[in-house]
Recover the amino acids of this structure.
Protein backbone atom coordinates (compact mmCIF):
# COMPACT_ATOMS: atom_id res chain seq x y z
CA UNK A 1 0.00 0.00 0.00
CA UNK A 2 1.13 3.58 -0.58
CA UNK A 3 2.89 5.17 2.36
CA UNK A 4 2.58 8.83 1.38
CA UNK A 5 1.07 10.96 4.12
CA UNK A 6 -1.28 13.16 2.11
CA UNK A 7 -4.20 11.57 3.93
CA UNK A 8 -2.62 11.07 7.37
CA UNK A 9 -4.87 13.64 9.04
CA UNK A 10 -8.15 12.05 7.97
CA UNK A 11 -6.89 8.52 8.64
CA UNK A 12 -5.95 9.55 12.19
CA UNK A 13 -9.39 11.10 12.64
CA UNK A 14 -10.93 7.86 11.37
CA UNK A 15 -9.16 5.93 14.15
CA UNK A 16 -11.06 8.01 16.68
CA UNK A 17 -14.30 7.38 14.78
CA UNK A 18 -13.72 3.63 14.85
CA UNK A 19 -13.14 3.73 18.60
CA UNK A 20 -16.64 5.15 19.21
CA UNK A 21 -18.40 3.48 16.23
CA UNK A 22 -21.92 2.33 17.09
CA UNK A 23 -23.49 1.67 13.67
CA UNK A 24 -22.75 -2.03 13.19
CA UNK A 25 -25.60 -4.23 11.95
CA UNK A 26 -27.34 -1.71 9.70
CA UNK A 27 -28.33 -2.85 6.21
CA UNK A 28 -27.91 -0.96 2.92
CA UNK A 29 -31.60 -0.06 2.76
CA UNK A 30 -32.57 3.55 3.54
CA UNK A 31 -34.51 3.36 6.82
CA UNK A 32 -36.44 6.57 6.06
CA UNK A 33 -37.04 5.71 2.39
CA UNK A 34 -35.29 8.91 1.43
CA UNK A 35 -32.73 9.92 -1.19
CA UNK A 36 -31.22 13.41 -1.22
CA UNK A 37 -29.42 14.85 -4.23
CA UNK A 38 -27.35 17.86 -3.32
CA UNK A 39 -24.24 19.76 -4.38
CA UNK A 40 -20.66 18.95 -3.36
CA UNK A 41 -20.51 22.32 -1.60
CA UNK A 42 -18.36 22.00 1.52
CA UNK A 43 -20.80 24.08 3.58
CA UNK A 44 -23.60 21.50 3.30
CA UNK A 45 -23.84 18.67 5.85
CA UNK A 46 -27.01 17.02 4.51
CA UNK A 47 -27.46 14.51 7.33
CA UNK A 48 -27.26 17.17 10.03
CA UNK A 49 -29.35 19.68 8.08
CA UNK A 50 -32.20 17.17 7.77
CA UNK A 51 -31.97 15.60 11.22
CA UNK A 52 -30.76 12.29 9.79
CA UNK A 53 -28.25 9.72 11.00
CA UNK A 54 -26.28 7.02 9.22
CA UNK A 55 -28.75 4.37 8.03
CA UNK A 56 -31.59 6.75 7.19
CA UNK A 57 -31.01 7.99 3.64
CA UNK A 58 -29.11 7.69 0.37
CA UNK A 59 -27.11 10.83 -0.34
CA UNK A 60 -26.12 11.71 -3.93
CA UNK A 61 -23.81 14.66 -4.61
CA UNK A 62 -22.33 16.28 -7.71
CA UNK A 63 -21.47 19.80 -8.84
CA UNK A 64 -24.70 21.79 -8.77
CA UNK A 65 -27.00 18.95 -7.58
CA UNK A 66 -27.81 18.33 -11.25
CA UNK A 67 -29.91 15.38 -12.43
CA UNK A 68 -27.34 13.82 -14.73
CA UNK A 69 -27.45 10.34 -16.26
CA UNK A 70 -25.22 9.20 -13.38
CA UNK A 71 -27.85 10.43 -10.92
CA UNK A 72 -30.66 8.65 -12.78
CA UNK A 73 -28.64 5.41 -12.83
CA UNK A 74 -28.14 5.77 -9.09
CA UNK A 75 -31.79 6.55 -8.34
CA UNK A 76 -32.98 3.49 -10.28
CA UNK A 77 -30.85 1.28 -8.04
CA UNK A 78 -31.84 3.16 -4.90
CA UNK A 79 -35.57 3.05 -5.61
CA UNK A 80 -35.89 -0.54 -6.81
CA UNK A 81 -33.37 -2.29 -4.58
CA UNK A 82 -32.57 -0.08 -1.60
CA UNK A 83 -35.89 1.10 -0.21
CA UNK A 84 -36.07 4.67 -1.56
CA UNK A 85 -39.55 6.03 -2.30
CA UNK A 86 -38.99 9.81 -2.05
CA UNK A 87 -36.30 12.11 -3.40
CA UNK A 88 -35.24 15.62 -2.46
CA UNK A 89 -33.33 17.65 -5.05
CA UNK A 90 -31.53 20.22 -2.95
CA UNK A 91 -29.90 23.19 -4.67
CA UNK A 92 -28.27 25.90 -2.57
CA UNK A 93 -27.54 29.63 -2.41
CA UNK A 94 -24.12 31.01 -3.47
CA UNK A 95 -23.48 28.03 -5.79
CA UNK A 96 -20.49 28.19 -8.13
CA UNK A 97 -22.63 26.43 -10.77
CA UNK A 98 -24.98 29.41 -10.93
CA UNK A 99 -23.70 32.19 -13.16
CA UNK A 100 -23.66 33.64 -16.59
CA UNK A 101 -22.42 30.67 -18.60
CA UNK A 102 -20.01 27.77 -18.92
CA UNK A 103 -17.79 30.17 -20.90
CA UNK A 104 -17.23 32.31 -17.80
CA UNK A 105 -16.18 29.25 -15.81
CA UNK A 106 -13.75 28.18 -18.52
CA UNK A 107 -12.28 31.70 -18.41
CA UNK A 108 -12.02 31.64 -14.60
CA UNK A 109 -10.13 28.33 -14.70
CA UNK A 110 -7.72 29.69 -17.32
CA UNK A 111 -7.27 32.89 -15.29
CA UNK A 112 -6.36 30.81 -12.22
CA UNK A 113 -3.58 29.08 -14.17
CA UNK A 114 -5.63 26.00 -15.06
CA UNK A 115 -6.02 24.19 -18.38
CA UNK A 116 -8.32 24.89 -21.33
CA UNK A 117 -11.49 23.08 -20.18
CA UNK A 118 -13.73 24.03 -23.10
CA UNK A 119 -14.29 20.40 -24.11
CA UNK A 120 -16.19 19.90 -20.82
CA UNK A 121 -19.88 20.74 -20.34
CA UNK A 122 -20.05 22.13 -16.82
CA UNK A 123 -23.83 22.81 -17.02
CA UNK A 124 -23.69 26.23 -15.37
CA UNK A 125 -27.13 27.83 -15.10
CA UNK A 126 -28.21 31.47 -15.15
CA UNK A 127 -31.72 30.47 -13.98
CA UNK A 128 -31.36 28.31 -10.87
CA UNK A 129 -35.11 28.14 -10.14
CA UNK A 130 -35.89 27.03 -13.68
CA UNK A 131 -33.04 24.53 -13.63
CA UNK A 132 -34.22 23.05 -10.33
CA UNK A 133 -37.74 22.62 -11.75
CA UNK A 134 -36.35 20.96 -14.90
CA UNK A 135 -34.16 18.64 -12.86
CA UNK A 136 -37.07 17.62 -10.64
CA UNK A 137 -39.14 16.97 -13.75
CA UNK A 138 -36.36 14.88 -15.22
CA UNK A 139 -36.81 12.45 -12.32
CA UNK A 140 -40.61 12.61 -12.41
CA UNK A 141 -40.65 11.82 -16.14
CA UNK A 142 -38.28 8.88 -16.00
CA UNK A 143 -40.03 5.66 -17.08
CA UNK A 144 -37.77 3.86 -14.61
CA UNK A 145 -38.81 5.92 -11.59
CA UNK A 146 -42.59 5.87 -11.61
CA UNK A 147 -44.22 6.37 -8.20
CA UNK A 148 -41.28 8.17 -6.61
CA UNK A 149 -42.24 11.31 -4.69
CA UNK A 150 -39.92 14.13 -5.76
CA UNK A 151 -39.50 17.65 -4.40
CA UNK A 152 -37.20 20.56 -5.25
CA UNK A 153 -35.63 22.51 -2.39
CA UNK A 154 -33.25 25.42 -1.85
CA UNK A 155 -30.73 25.33 1.01
CA UNK A 156 -29.48 28.67 2.36
CA UNK A 157 -25.79 28.29 3.26
CA UNK A 158 -25.93 31.37 5.52
CA UNK A 159 -28.83 30.22 7.70
CA UNK A 160 -29.03 26.45 7.23
CA UNK A 161 -32.68 26.79 6.20
CA UNK A 162 -34.25 24.51 3.60
CA UNK A 163 -37.20 25.83 1.56
CA UNK A 164 -39.49 23.86 -0.76
CA UNK A 165 -39.43 25.36 -4.27
CA UNK A 166 -41.26 22.91 -6.50
CA UNK B 1 -45.34 25.84 -3.57
CA UNK B 2 -46.48 22.23 -3.15
CA UNK B 3 -48.26 21.51 0.08
CA UNK B 4 -47.93 17.72 0.13
CA UNK B 5 -46.39 16.43 3.33
CA UNK B 6 -44.04 13.76 1.99
CA UNK B 7 -41.13 15.77 3.33
CA UNK B 8 -42.73 17.19 6.50
CA UNK B 9 -40.47 15.16 8.81
CA UNK B 10 -37.18 16.41 7.36
CA UNK B 11 -38.45 19.99 7.05
CA UNK B 12 -39.39 19.94 10.73
CA UNK B 13 -35.95 18.58 11.60
CA UNK B 14 -34.42 21.35 9.51
CA UNK B 15 -36.19 23.96 11.67
CA UNK B 16 -34.30 22.64 14.67
CA UNK B 17 -31.05 22.72 12.68
CA UNK B 18 -31.63 26.36 11.72
CA UNK B 19 -32.22 27.28 15.36
CA UNK B 20 -28.74 26.11 16.34
CA UNK B 21 -26.96 26.88 13.01
CA UNK B 22 -23.44 28.23 13.54
CA UNK B 23 -21.86 27.95 10.08
CA UNK B 24 -22.60 31.40 8.63
CA UNK B 25 -19.73 33.19 6.86
CA UNK B 26 -18.02 30.14 5.35
CA UNK B 27 -17.02 30.30 1.68
CA UNK B 28 -17.44 27.60 -0.96
CA UNK B 29 -13.74 26.69 -0.86
CA UNK B 30 -12.77 23.42 0.83
CA UNK B 31 -10.84 24.48 3.95
CA UNK B 32 -8.91 21.19 4.09
CA UNK B 33 -8.28 21.03 0.32
CA UNK B 34 -10.04 17.68 0.25
CA UNK B 35 -12.60 16.01 -2.01
CA UNK B 36 -14.12 12.64 -1.09
CA UNK B 37 -15.91 10.44 -3.62
CA UNK B 38 -17.98 7.78 -1.95
CA UNK B 39 -21.09 5.69 -2.46
CA UNK B 40 -24.67 6.73 -1.69
CA UNK B 41 -24.83 3.96 0.90
CA UNK B 42 -26.98 5.09 3.82
CA UNK B 43 -24.54 3.64 6.36
CA UNK B 44 -21.74 6.05 5.40
CA UNK B 45 -21.51 9.47 7.10
CA UNK B 46 -18.34 10.69 5.38
CA UNK B 47 -17.88 13.88 7.42
CA UNK B 48 -18.08 12.03 10.75
CA UNK B 49 -15.99 9.08 9.54
CA UNK B 50 -13.13 11.42 8.57
CA UNK B 51 -13.38 13.87 11.47
CA UNK B 52 -14.58 16.67 9.20
CA UNK B 53 -17.09 19.47 9.69
CA UNK B 54 -19.06 21.60 7.22
CA UNK B 55 -16.59 23.83 5.37
CA UNK B 56 -13.75 21.31 5.22
CA UNK B 57 -14.32 19.16 2.13
CA UNK B 58 -16.22 18.57 -1.09
CA UNK B 59 -18.24 15.36 -0.95
CA UNK B 60 -19.20 13.53 -4.17
CA UNK B 61 -21.53 10.53 -4.04
CA UNK B 62 -23.01 8.13 -6.60
CA UNK B 63 -23.86 4.42 -6.75
CA UNK B 64 -20.63 2.54 -6.13
CA UNK B 65 -18.32 5.58 -5.74
CA UNK B 66 -17.54 5.20 -9.45
CA UNK B 67 -15.41 7.71 -11.37
CA UNK B 68 -17.98 8.63 -14.02
CA UNK B 69 -17.87 11.57 -16.43
CA UNK B 70 -20.10 13.42 -13.96
CA UNK B 71 -17.48 12.91 -11.26
CA UNK B 72 -14.66 14.12 -13.51
CA UNK B 73 -16.67 17.24 -14.44
CA UNK B 74 -17.20 17.89 -10.73
CA UNK B 75 -13.53 17.33 -9.80
CA UNK B 76 -12.34 19.76 -12.48
CA UNK B 77 -14.47 22.49 -10.93
CA UNK B 78 -13.49 21.53 -7.39
CA UNK B 79 -9.76 21.44 -8.11
CA UNK B 80 -9.42 24.58 -10.22
CA UNK B 81 -11.94 26.87 -8.54
CA UNK B 82 -12.76 25.54 -5.08
CA UNK B 83 -9.44 24.76 -3.42
CA UNK B 84 -9.27 20.97 -3.77
CA UNK B 85 -5.78 19.46 -4.12
CA UNK B 86 -6.35 15.89 -2.86
CA UNK B 87 -9.04 13.31 -3.55
CA UNK B 88 -10.09 10.17 -1.70
CA UNK B 89 -12.00 7.53 -3.66
CA UNK B 90 -13.81 5.61 -0.94
CA UNK B 91 -15.44 2.28 -1.80
CA UNK B 92 -17.07 0.22 0.95
CA UNK B 93 -17.80 -3.32 2.09
CA UNK B 94 -21.21 -4.95 1.43
CA UNK B 95 -21.85 -2.68 -1.61
CA UNK B 96 -24.86 -3.45 -3.84
CA UNK B 97 -22.69 -2.46 -6.83
CA UNK B 98 -20.34 -5.39 -6.18
CA UNK B 99 -21.64 -8.65 -7.59
CA UNK B 100 -21.67 -10.98 -10.51
CA UNK B 101 -22.89 -8.67 -13.25
CA UNK B 102 -25.31 -5.95 -14.32
CA UNK B 103 -27.54 -8.77 -15.58
CA UNK B 104 -28.10 -10.02 -12.03
CA UNK B 105 -29.16 -6.53 -10.93
CA UNK B 106 -31.57 -6.23 -13.84
CA UNK B 107 -33.04 -9.59 -12.78
CA UNK B 108 -33.31 -8.50 -9.14
CA UNK B 109 -35.19 -5.35 -10.12
CA UNK B 110 -37.60 -7.36 -12.28
CA UNK B 111 -38.06 -9.89 -9.47
CA UNK B 112 -38.97 -7.07 -7.07
CA UNK B 113 -41.74 -5.92 -9.42
CA UNK B 114 -39.68 -3.18 -11.09
CA UNK B 115 -39.31 -2.33 -14.78
CA UNK B 116 -37.01 -3.79 -17.43
CA UNK B 117 -33.83 -1.76 -16.81
CA UNK B 118 -31.61 -3.45 -19.36
CA UNK B 119 -31.04 -0.23 -21.30
CA UNK B 120 -29.13 1.13 -18.27
CA UNK B 121 -25.46 0.45 -17.57
CA UNK B 122 -25.27 0.06 -13.80
CA UNK B 123 -21.50 -0.65 -13.81
CA UNK B 124 -21.65 -3.50 -11.31
CA UNK B 125 -18.20 -4.97 -10.62
CA UNK B 126 -17.13 -8.50 -9.71
CA UNK B 127 -13.61 -7.23 -8.85
CA UNK B 128 -13.97 -4.34 -6.41
CA UNK B 129 -10.23 -3.95 -5.75
CA UNK B 130 -9.44 -3.81 -9.46
CA UNK B 131 -12.30 -1.41 -10.09
CA UNK B 132 -11.11 0.89 -7.30
CA UNK B 133 -7.60 0.94 -8.78
CA UNK B 134 -8.97 1.70 -12.25
CA UNK B 135 -11.17 4.48 -10.93
CA UNK B 136 -8.26 6.05 -9.04
CA UNK B 137 -6.18 5.84 -12.22
CA UNK B 138 -8.97 7.47 -14.21
CA UNK B 139 -8.53 10.58 -12.06
CA UNK B 140 -4.71 10.42 -12.10
CA UNK B 141 -4.66 10.15 -15.90
CA UNK B 142 -7.04 13.04 -16.56
CA UNK B 143 -5.28 15.86 -18.45
CA UNK B 144 -7.54 18.27 -16.56
CA UNK B 145 -6.52 17.08 -13.09
CA UNK B 146 -2.71 17.13 -13.12
CA UNK B 147 -1.11 17.56 -9.71
CA UNK B 148 -4.05 16.24 -7.69
CA UNK B 149 -3.10 13.73 -4.98
CA UNK B 150 -5.41 10.72 -5.28
CA UNK B 151 -5.83 7.70 -3.02
CA UNK B 152 -8.13 4.66 -3.07
CA UNK B 153 -9.71 3.54 0.22
CA UNK B 154 -12.09 0.89 1.51
CA UNK B 155 -14.61 1.74 4.23
CA UNK B 156 -15.86 -1.10 6.43
CA UNK B 157 -19.55 -0.51 7.20
CA UNK B 158 -19.40 -2.87 10.19
CA UNK B 159 -16.50 -1.17 11.98
CA UNK B 160 -16.31 2.35 10.53
CA UNK B 161 -12.66 1.73 9.64
CA UNK B 162 -11.08 3.23 6.53
CA UNK B 163 -8.14 1.42 4.91
CA UNK B 164 -5.84 2.67 2.17
CA UNK B 165 -5.88 0.29 -0.82
CA UNK B 166 -4.07 2.08 -3.63
Amino acid sequence: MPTDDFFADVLAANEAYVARFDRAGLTGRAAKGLAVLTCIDSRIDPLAALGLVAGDAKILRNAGARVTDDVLRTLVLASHLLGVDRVMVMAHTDCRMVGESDARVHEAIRASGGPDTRSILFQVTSDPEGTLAEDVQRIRSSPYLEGLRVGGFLYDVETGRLTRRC
User: Anything to note?
Assistant: The CA atoms of residues 42 and 150 of chain A lie 24 Å apart. The helical segments of chain A are 8-19, 46-49, 69-81, 102-111, 128-140. Chain A touches chain B through 94 residues (CB under 8 Å).
